[in-house]
Write a structure and sequence with these properties.
The structure is a single chain. The protein is of the alpha+beta class and 93 residues long. 17% of the residues lie in helices and 13% in strands. The chain contains one helix and four strands. The protein has one helix spanning 75-90; strands spanning 34-36, 42-43, 55-57, 69-72. The protein has a four-stranded mixed sheet, with no helix packed on it. Strand 1 (34-36) and strand 2 (42-43) form a beta hairpin. The chain binds zinc ion (2 copies).
Protein backbone atom coordinates (compact mmCIF):
# COMPACT_ATOMS: atom_id res chain seq x y z
CA UNK A 1 0.00 0.00 0.00
CA UNK A 2 1.58 3.27 -1.06
CA UNK A 3 1.12 6.21 1.19
CA UNK A 4 1.82 9.71 0.02
CA UNK A 5 2.00 12.42 2.58
CA UNK A 6 2.44 15.24 0.15
CA UNK A 7 2.78 17.91 2.74
CA UNK A 8 -0.90 18.33 3.47
CA UNK A 9 -1.83 16.62 6.68
CA UNK A 10 -5.59 16.81 6.99
CA UNK A 11 -5.88 17.27 10.72
CA UNK A 12 -3.72 17.71 13.78
CA UNK A 13 -5.59 14.90 15.41
CA UNK A 14 -3.74 11.97 13.93
CA UNK A 15 -3.67 8.61 15.65
CA UNK A 16 -0.36 6.81 15.24
CA UNK A 17 -0.86 3.32 16.60
CA UNK A 18 1.75 0.62 16.69
CA UNK A 19 1.04 -2.95 15.61
CA UNK A 20 0.33 -5.11 18.64
CA UNK A 21 1.35 -8.38 17.04
CA UNK A 22 4.32 -9.94 18.79
CA UNK A 23 7.54 -9.26 16.94
CA UNK A 24 5.95 -6.66 14.71
CA UNK A 25 6.94 -3.05 15.15
CA UNK A 26 5.01 -1.44 12.32
CA UNK A 27 3.73 2.00 13.19
CA UNK A 28 1.12 3.70 11.10
CA UNK A 29 -1.92 5.89 11.40
CA UNK A 30 -5.59 5.10 11.64
CA UNK A 31 -5.84 4.93 7.84
CA UNK A 32 -3.13 2.32 7.40
CA UNK A 33 -3.62 0.40 10.62
CA UNK A 34 -6.69 -1.65 11.46
CA UNK A 35 -8.27 -1.80 14.85
CA UNK A 36 -9.39 -5.20 16.10
CA UNK A 37 -12.94 -4.98 17.33
CA UNK A 38 -12.43 -7.87 19.72
CA UNK A 39 -9.28 -6.91 21.62
CA UNK A 40 -9.31 -3.23 20.72
CA UNK A 41 -5.67 -3.25 19.68
CA UNK A 42 -4.25 -1.87 16.46
CA UNK A 43 -2.63 -4.07 13.85
CA UNK A 44 -0.95 -3.59 10.53
CA UNK A 45 -2.81 -5.07 7.54
CA UNK A 46 -0.52 -8.10 7.63
CA UNK A 47 -1.78 -9.12 11.03
CA UNK A 48 -5.43 -8.53 10.31
CA UNK A 49 -7.46 -11.42 9.04
CA UNK A 50 -8.41 -10.33 5.55
CA UNK A 51 -11.06 -13.02 5.14
CA UNK A 52 -13.14 -11.52 7.91
CA UNK A 53 -13.06 -8.26 6.05
CA UNK A 54 -12.21 -4.75 7.05
CA UNK A 55 -14.65 -1.90 7.23
CA UNK A 56 -14.27 1.83 7.48
CA UNK A 57 -15.81 3.23 10.62
CA UNK A 58 -16.93 6.82 10.50
CA UNK A 59 -17.89 8.79 13.58
CA UNK A 60 -21.48 10.04 13.52
CA UNK A 61 -20.48 13.65 13.18
CA UNK A 62 -19.08 14.63 9.82
CA UNK A 63 -17.05 17.29 11.58
CA UNK A 64 -14.98 14.48 13.00
CA UNK A 65 -14.40 12.77 9.68
CA UNK A 66 -10.67 12.80 10.37
CA UNK A 67 -11.34 10.31 13.14
CA UNK A 68 -12.56 7.58 10.84
CA UNK A 69 -10.58 4.37 11.01
CA UNK A 70 -10.55 0.82 9.75
CA UNK A 71 -11.99 -1.94 11.85
CA UNK A 72 -11.39 -5.65 11.48
CA UNK A 73 -10.32 -8.65 13.46
CA UNK A 74 -6.74 -9.60 14.17
CA UNK A 75 -5.32 -12.98 13.28
CA UNK A 76 -5.04 -13.94 16.94
CA UNK A 77 -8.68 -13.17 17.78
CA UNK A 78 -9.78 -14.87 14.59
CA UNK A 79 -7.89 -18.00 15.59
CA UNK A 80 -9.35 -17.84 19.09
CA UNK A 81 -12.90 -17.65 17.81
CA UNK A 82 -12.16 -20.42 15.35
CA UNK A 83 -10.82 -22.60 18.14
CA UNK A 84 -13.84 -21.89 20.28
CA UNK A 85 -16.08 -22.91 17.44
CA UNK A 86 -14.12 -26.13 16.93
CA UNK A 87 -14.13 -26.93 20.62
CA UNK A 88 -17.87 -26.47 20.72
CA UNK A 89 -18.20 -28.79 17.78
CA UNK A 90 -15.95 -31.47 19.24
CA UNK A 91 -17.10 -31.27 22.84
CA UNK A 92 -18.10 -34.71 24.10
CA UNK A 93 -21.51 -35.42 25.49
ZN1 LIG B 1 -7.75 -8.91 18.35
ZN1 LIG C 1 1.93 -6.19 12.28
Amino acid sequence: MAISLSGRLPAPLLITPECEAPGCSVTGDQYTMVRCHRCGAWFCPEHIDAEEGVMLVRPPSSALSSLSYYRGICARCRQASERARTREHLSPG
